[in-house]
Amino acid sequence: MEFLEFVKDLFVNIGMWFQGFLVGTGLPDVWVHVISLTVGAFVLAFVPVFSLFFLVWYERKIVSRIADRLGPNNSGAYGGPYGLFQIIGDAIKMFTKEDVVPAAADRWVFNIAPMLIFAIAVLIWPVIPLGKGVIGADISLGIFYILSLGSGGMVAMLMAGWGSNNKYALLAALRGIATLVSYEIPQVLAVIAVVMVTGSFSMQDIIASQEIPFLFTLPLTALLFFSAALPELGRRPFDLVEADSEIVAGYFIEYSGMKFGMFYLAEFMNQTAMSIIFATLFLGGWRGPWVEQIPALGTLWLVLKMFFVMLVIQFFQYTLPRLRIDQILGFSWKFLTPLALVNVCVVALVGKAVPYNAENLWIRAGAFLGTNVLLALVVLGVLAVAGRLARQRVEARLEEEATPA
Amino acid sequence: MQTHGETWVQFKAQYYVFAIAFVVFDVEAAFLLPWALAYNTLEFYAVVEAIIFILILLGGLLYLWRKGALKWM
Q: What pLDDT, on a 0 to 100 scale, did the predictor assign at position A340?
């Protein structure tokens, strides 16, 4: 029974057991603190990297099923059950490739870019709450820190494109930055709406204030955040920067071997991190049934939600055609940014009209939901009217051209 | 496909225009972040002030749109 009690709050108990063990060896307190923090940091840095093995397999299976084929299920004799070890083969291949640096490339910038992008991808993880007490560092600036790391990714992209001494790479990097920069604003504005309702940046506080997940009370904000964060990942349908058939692998062109592996890993970890952040902000993080009794179950719920969000991202990736750069930027500036600004105004008004206290929680949630849906309908109406006007204009012009003939 | 000429070309000016627009709206978002944090403790007029701020910037976005700064790239 005692073992069962231990397992119920597994990660917190492991941490406390480890600290107790260190204190028991008679080290001074400072050393105990330093060692436990270092070990925690290592675990936190390696868990996402190693979980990538499973997640890359998951993505490949989904992608192949969408394309009506089977995907890795038994890669030859070494594939392992269901093709799970295929990824290890890929990793080994990347390790053993020759590391080519172009002669005229800017050496420092070229070499540092993959390290920077990988470091940024790993730096997101300490702030993500993986369970009730399980978080690397519950800083009070949680979501703001994550948003600022996104900007660091832009610098790494520019370094990679510029340092490669290759026109394709440079163009791809510039376009990538134009995309990232344009979608940063709706993303920040959607986060502002969430922070308004919560009253704090800290990720644990955001989860704690979601008795009803924000997906159901602020659906338009969730959709905005999702639409704005998807291009930040640089995946189809927004993958101008790495469109294989167009710009020849974009800013990754001149990279080979492990440096390319770093970019690939970082991109995938960004995708995973974004899924977890969406799950935290809008789906309630580690909340779920029976979490009060068995806190370790929270991690399971979070992982399931993350898989679900990744599934939705893969659907977007592999069923929609690629968008042109002017379509991408137009979508952001002409649609998402005004909508995000108006959404902030509406949420602000409703939040003050139905102020927060413990009784009218459901009324408040209903008010948010109602106004969000209303705003969405108004936007759809505006789009429909604008579309009809545009079509009428085009038809009038065609008639005009047709009549003399 | 081979390219010729110097690699580090002069890039299109439209990128710069987008970057400037981004700076303006990012600064606006940066101003809105502490407001959002203190939202629960504010009076109603603070919300009205912030909405006026957002509307002024929406007007700016509309100006950019009509002037053609947001197209062709």
A: 93
Q: How many CB pairs below 8 A link A and B?
A: 98
- Residue A77 above 90 pLDDT? no
Taking CB atoms and an 8 Å limit, are A342 and B58 in contact across chains?
yes
Same domain, A165 and A283: yes
DSSP character at residue B69 = T
A293: exposed, middle or buried (C-beta count within 10 Å: 0-12, 13-18, 19+)?
exposed
Write down how long chain A is.
405
In a domain, A393, yes or no: no
Give me the residue from A165, A185, A192 closest to B33, CB to CB.
A192
Q: Are A91 and A197 within one domain?
A: no
Count of domains forming chain B: 1
Same domain, A106 and A62: no
Domain span at residue A68 reads 1-95
Tell me if A344 and B18 make a contact (CB, 8 A cut-off): no
Q: How far apart are the CA of A189 and the nearest CA of chain B, in angstroms? A: 7
Q: What is the pLDDT of residue A266?
A: 85
The reply to whether B22 falls in a domain is yes
pLDDT tens digits, one per residue of A257-297: 788 888 888 888 888 888 889 998 998 888 888 777 777 78
**Residue B33 within a domain:** yes
